């Protein structure tokens, strides 16, 4: 955590904050930065479940999800009476919906203090301070990136796993997606800066990183190297102490043979691939402006499985895109049967204002979309279960996770992720284990969305990641309440040097 330049003037009021995140992994990554910025400026995180009972509430919004604006204004409406009763409380709205709606937010919710966009999240502390001093809403939307998010202070949610952003923005023009308009053209980080961040994270105890980008495997297009992404994967394989590398979300257009080879030949790159298909119909893919067709997509799947037979492959699919006929939908069903995804995130198409698809002819009636969605979901559920059954009897190394098993307390089990990212619930071993530690188990049962290891674990390996989790947990428990805080600094904190910076996707 960067120290920042805090004022030495102490105040007797403890300023707390809450960040609410909606949408994709990129927003999760940004929210960790927003939390880091606020803590660097002297705020403390509100307790879990505070539900708006904080001095600053930040909404990091998404413009991709259905009814995103209704959800935002509903939540803002619930905070309005709390703000009236609580002098000095501030509300900020950032993210993709803020980038898109700008002045509309303050018009519809005049009690909002700050509106900021996707390109200037580093300005949040100074905008809050300016709104407090001037007693009026501050709206600041940058049209281009001011600072790469990974150069900002961070408060990571996990001690053992981290997001590492390698690019922002997207050069594609998919007709259903508004992200390029809100995040801008692709901008790549320097490879050396990415690797320096990963090395710093590993030094802190992180053992798993996920490379993040709107179109992650297009990395290199901004710096003129078509094989930059495969080279980055191989470079990650040389970082001592880095046990697991994942990435999301790639685009089939840029999924080249050198990437497949790098995945297969780099031991710490996990046998897992999430690659959005969106539709199995060539006609619909063309209408979506997706630059591949079903044969090309299935060909990539075949190559990945030839190189990594145990790879778990997942996808995104949109049902009911404008103009989709029953024949088009059957092509999607055929592609799903052929691909045999470990799981699929299926979405019913709904209009997104500002996208070309919203104005297309042939909008499908909701009841037709719903019926197709149910058929596709049932097919994928069957395939997911069949694919998970193939895991029964296998011995897997599971990285213990925090918060993955909602029933763990009642079942006396722990939960974690296998190398291919499947969720595994397993019997608690006799010796203590911590999130980040690795447990070897034998799979005894499969459900559509998880695996179960009912026997005694075969081995337990304590890790530096587990040490990092324990250190963080102990420090949090020892932190005294009611600490005197410095007055938040006016202005964004100085960026961290790349070597010490801690660590939607739309494909």
TrEMBL record:
The keyword S-adenosyl-L-methionine applies. Its EC number is 2.8.4.3. SUPFAM superfamilies: Radical SAM enzymes (SSF102114). It is an enzyme of class 2 (transferase). Monomer. Belongs to the methylthiotransferase family. MiaB subfamily. This is tRNA-2-methylthio-N(6)-dimethylallyladenosine synthase. It comes from Streptomyces bacillaris. The gene is miaB.
